[in-house]
Amino acid sequence: MAEFDIHRETVIKAEPEQVQALIDDFHQWRKWSPWEDTDPNMERVYSGADRGIGARYFWSGNRKAGRGDMEITSATHDAIGIKLHFEKPWRATNQVTFEFRPEAGGTEVTWRMTGQQTGAQALFGKLVPMDKLVGKDFEKGLAQLKAAAES
Questions:
Q1: pTM of the entire structure?
Q2: Helical H segments across 27-93, by residue range
Q3: How far, in Å, are 14, 15, 35, 109, 138 from residue 105 at the CA level?
């Protein structure tokens, strides 16, 4: 079993509340998520709360987009926690956290995903680390989040 912790940070010239509003409402993810453009025909279903704790998002798309769901499990001034469940291209359940720290003139945002790789995934992870698989996506997503929040 191999544990992983992937994280990237950026500073966004916006108040924490502005940034959080783009994250705790899954409808807003279309503005910045690095995976939203992987499949123009991707199916999206929103359920539960409109935003914040209990908000849910299901997606199903092509091979690149995969299939899974997310649920916001915690939301404070400092962080938003999300349970992420993948069905395809592989089965996995991970914890995602967006952390917010006020900075002079903006907000430092850290996007973190933690989890464990087991079985074949652990073996694959020795060849291609999770950070290499999704790190660039986090960088792209944070850049797009920054652009959306600062516009």
A1: 0.89
A2: none
A3: 7, 8, 29, 13, 23
